[in-house]
Amino acid sequence: MKRNTFRSIFHRPAFRALKAVCFVSALAATAPIAGAIDYYVDSANGFDNTNTGTSAASPWKSYAKLNKPNGVKFGPGDTIHFKRGGVWTGKLNPVCQGSGTARVVFKDYGNATDPAPLLKGLNANEPAVLLESPSYCTFENFKITHSGTNAAP
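and the corresponding structure tokens:
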């Protein structure tokens, strides 16, 4: 009677099929999401009226194109890049509807030695970021502050 060894288990057809599924899943996780868009925001050099916001060379300046009700409705795989060293004051209130396999990601871009993007609440009663019914929305590498002593709503 042949003993099942650790090595023999990994050479069985069922395990080889599992390895193939895992490999394909890993490729899918790193592949670009169809329809996903990269957006760029730069508080110093952006323009809301004329720039497309879809490249670092043509960034938006403020939250005007990001906030609801008239801003972009961010979907699965979209990434919103905020320029390092930038400061935004007021309330960021985007529509953020990602999915379990393709999050909406807010993140930094630019010179790594510059400070992280700063999102500042306008006053004691207004939050710096307000996400209403978000779905799979992630923030990476930000400094978010609120000037008041009261809890944000």
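(Above: one complete record from the training split.) Residues 57 and 100 are 31 Å apart (CA to CA).
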